[in-house]
Write a structure and sequence with these properties.
10-stranded antiparallel β-sheet, 498 residues, Hypothetical Protein Pfu-838710-001, alpha+beta, CHAD domain, 18% strand
Length: 498
């Protein structure tokens, strides 16, 4: 797969309009005419179009092959694979698997384009911009309607300026000539949308206007929708093993579970309980990979941060975790390609469309949410007291782990209602979330340090590494002790919110 950032503008033009003169901007080179044949694919429910995503197979031209076009901040990101016959290969569908799932992907439009190309060159011969004069014939497969039109496209090339301001200036200069020639900005930014008789592949989403007087159900439904969307965006990153993607996906799953648990009186538990169970199962699989990844990276980091410890010591420590991570990531990929995961995504989509609400959902957010947060805070304090009463280290570690999980749930419940479109609470709740995060982070660091000590004791070492292992064990033991020393103050800061 190759990736290309596409920044272009489209214009409507009638059949008699002459191509504009661009020689006042740069050197113009005629690149000839090409015939392009494309088939566009989508699911029966139009899941790709609803996200402004295009999947096509195109023959002809320099970039024939399979293409996926994804929305991007300054245009579109185009993914490209070599041309094959028949259905879309699995490798092509992987980046959109969280949307496609196990559904049929079928042809929704066929488009033929007769394209005449001009390239605009700079003084040094660099290719700045491509101007395409397209005559398009498009058929809507579902309706059989044939639509024919002419359009112009201007697209930045590799030699275009790097700064956004200079790029816009170049496109603006060309646009001035294009409009002067008689063209108008296109009502549709996509050939596929035009082929289907639309001005856009999807409708623009209007962000809800919420405040504390909004119902708890309205606020939390928006928070859940945002997390579900983030989960889907992380899916392709996990599949290609992008750094930190497993951790981020696991975190979104935990945040969703926390919302369903912390605000349980808002949701119909017959529905939310099933979703929580499925999220827990997926989180467990991701957790195995994430834990191995953390320990692998920590092995190298503690060696690199300590003077006098050779890098190969960290590599030796990391080898075992690296093998565990590879196996765990393979299990993650199998899980993300299974029916159970696809049905979980279906359930989340259905919940976003029609939230399953209980009576608490109709109370105001300003009344219900502070009560739920106070309850979660009490839960942290209760678990912390049990840890304080532990008489031995063997008892302490699992109790601290339970305290950490309770603090994390409080943090996620508080952050959900202070961020994004669901952010209806202000400084006090944000400070509570920050205090819960401090407790969670200290106990998480302590837990990782204890695990690393166990790893150092259990990992076979040669005589050359035995001393270094002992040094790193003491470093980790000291670090764990510091976490426990700072923990009471962090917990006291969180308790002040009672």
């Amino acid at each position: 797969m190759t990736t290309h950032e596409e920044i272009e503008r489209k214009y409507e033009v009638d059949e008699h309009t002459s191509v504009p003169r661009l020689d006042g901007i740069g050197t113009v080179e005629l690149r000839g005419e090409v015939e392009l044949h494309a088939e566009y694919f989508d699911t029966p429910g139009g899941d790709l179009a609803s996200r402004r995503i295009v999947l096509r197979r195109r023959s002809g031209g320099d970039d024939e092959g399979w293409h996926i076009k994804l929305p991007a901040p300054h245009g579109r990101t185009e993914l490209h694979w070599p041309l094959t016959d028949g259905d879309a290969p699995d490798s092509v569908l992987e980046p959109i698997r969280s949307l496609v799932r196990d559904q049929e992907v079928r042809v929704v439009a066929r488009i033929h384009t007769r394209r005449t190309l001009l390239h605009l060159l700079g003084p040094d011969g660099a290719e700045l911009l491509e101007f395409a004069d397209d005559v398009v014939s498009a058929s809507d497969v579902n309706t059989g309607i044939l639509r024919i039109w002419r359009e112009w496209e201007t697209e930045l090339l590799g030699g275009a300026p790097e700064s956004p301001e200079e790029r816009s200036a170049l496109l603006d200069a060309v646009e001035q000539q294009v409009l002067a020639a008689g063209a108008t900005p296109a009502s549709s930014a996509s050939k596929l949308a035009s082929a289907l008789g639309r001005t856009s592949l999807s409708e623009d989403r209007v962000a809800p206007s919420l405040d504390r007087s909004s119902t708890a159900g309205e606020v939390l439904a928006v928070a859940i929708e945002a997390l579900v969307e983030e989960l889907k965006q992380l899916d392709p990153k996990v599949r290609v093993d992008q750094a930190d993607s497993v951790h981020q996906m696991r975190t979104r799953i935990r945040r969703l579970r926390s919302l369903f648990a912390s605000y349980r009186e808002v949701f119909d538990r017959a529905v939310s309980g099933h979703i929580r169970d499925e999220l827990k199962q997926l989180g467990t699989v991701l957790g195995q990979a994430r834990d191995a990844e953390v320990m692998r990276d920590r092995s190298r980091a503690i060696a690199a941060d300590h003077d006098g410890i050779p890098a190969e010591v960290g590599d030796h420590l990391a080898d075992a975790w690296g093998g565990d991570y590879g196996q765990a990531h393979s299990r993650v990929l199998a899980e993300l390609s299974g029916e159970r995961y696809f049905r979980l995504l279906d359930s989340l989509d259905e919940f976003v469309r029609r939230p399953a609400l209980a009576n608490g959902a109709f109370e105001s957010a300003g009344e219900l949410i502070p009560i739920a947060l106070a309850r979660d805070l009490k839960r942290v304090v209760r678990r912390a007291r049990r840890a304080d009463a532990a008489s031995t280290g063997q008892e302490l570690i699992p109790l601290l782990h339970e305290t950490r999980k309770a603090a994390k749930r409080l943090r996620y419940a508080a952050e959900a209602v202070t961020e994004g479109d669901a952010g209806v609470f202000g400084k006090r709740v944000r400070r509570m979330a920050f205090a819960a995060e401090a407790v969670h982070d200290l106990l998480g660091e302590h837990r990782d340090s204890v695990r690393m000590q166990q790893h150092l004791r259990a990992t076979p070492s040669t005589g050359d590494y035995a001393f270094q292992f002992g040094v790193l064990h003491e470093v980790e033991r000291h670090g764990a002790a510091l976490c426990l020393a700072e923990y009471p103050a962090a917990l006291a800061a969180l308790r002040r919110f009672r």
